[in-house]
């Protein structure tokens, strides 16, 4: 392989294999590695078979007690900032930082865990886009500021206690809207990370 973006991803996936297996993500890990090892344009949003990589930035507050979520306009769920990896993003983590800034206004977040979670989920057909899969790569960051402002495609950006997200079990968080299982899974991991690093 001669693609630095792809080479870095393969290196990161290999380094996290045991952890992902321990967290029950072995099947997703294998699918991601298989996709990364192909010669296909897997970072392009126009690659639909089987899909492409996306990037999510989970952000905890400075004290590690809260997680920043956005109310997604289209999906109507409280989710993490994230989106497609653009051609001028040097890495998928650069895409994370860009999405965090665009969707919440936060700048200069510190990286805590370069690959805290992975998720593969289906995306239905939308306009000219065919149904496909998102192979979502997730990094964990710590915010230096609590001031957030919802950006394009975002209704609200709000801090939630990690414990409230976990205890919600996918139920209502705020504004009669809930979250999904993958956000709860990362909240559990973020609490574990905080305890293990204190």
Question: Please, could you describe this protein's structure?
Answer:
It is a single chain. The strands form 2 sheets. Strands 1, 2, 3, 4, 5, 6 and 7 form a 7-stranded mixed β-sheet that branches. Strands 8-9 form a two-stranded antiparallel ribbon. Helix content is 33%, strand content 30%. The protein has a single domain (4-196), classed as Nucleoside Triphosphate Pyrophosphohydrolase (Alpha-Beta Complex). The protein contains 6 helices and 9 strands; from the N terminus they run αααββββαβββαββα. The mean pLDDT is 92. It is an alpha+beta fold and 198 residues long. The longest helix is centred in the C-terminal third of the chain and has 16 residues, at 181-196.
Q: Which sheet architecture does the biggest sheet show?
A: 7 strands, mixed
Rounded mean pLDDT is 92
* CATH T-level fold name: Nucleoside Triphosphate Pyrophosphohydrolase
Number of strands: 9
Calculate Rg over CA atoms.
16 Å
- Residue share in helix: 25-40%
What is the terminal separation in angstroms? 39 Å
Task: Give the strand content.
Answer: 25-35%
CATH architectural group: Alpha-Beta Complex
Total domain modules: 1
In one word, what is the shape? Answer: globular
Helix/strand structural class: alpha+beta
Q: Return the string of H and E elements.
A: HHHEEEEHEEEHEEH
């Amino acid at each position: 392989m001669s693609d630095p973006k792809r080479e870095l991803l393969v290196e990161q996936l290999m380094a996290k294999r045991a952890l992902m297996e321990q967290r029950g993500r072995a099947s997703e890990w294998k699918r991601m590695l298989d996709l990364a090892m192909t010669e296909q344009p897997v970072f392009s949003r126009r690659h639909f078979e089987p899909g492409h990589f996306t990037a999510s930035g989970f952000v905890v507050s400075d004290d590690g007690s809260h997680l920043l979520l956005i109310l997604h306009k289209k999906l109507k769920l409280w989710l993490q900032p994230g989106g497609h990896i653009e051609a001028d993003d040097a890495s998928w983590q650069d895409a994370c930082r860009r999405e965090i800034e665009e969707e919440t206004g936060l700048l200069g977040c510190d990286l805590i865990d370069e690959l805290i979670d992975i998720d593969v989920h289906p995306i239905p057909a939308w306009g000219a886009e065919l149904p496909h899969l998102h192979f979502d790569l997730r990094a964990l960051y710590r915010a230096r500021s609590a001031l957030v402002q919802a950006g394009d495609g975002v209704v609200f950006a709000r801090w939630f206690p990690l414990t409230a997200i976990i205890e919600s079990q996918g139920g209502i968080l705020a504004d009669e809207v809930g979250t999904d299982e993958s956000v709860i899974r990362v909240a559990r991991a973020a609490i574990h990370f905080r305890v293990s690093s204190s």
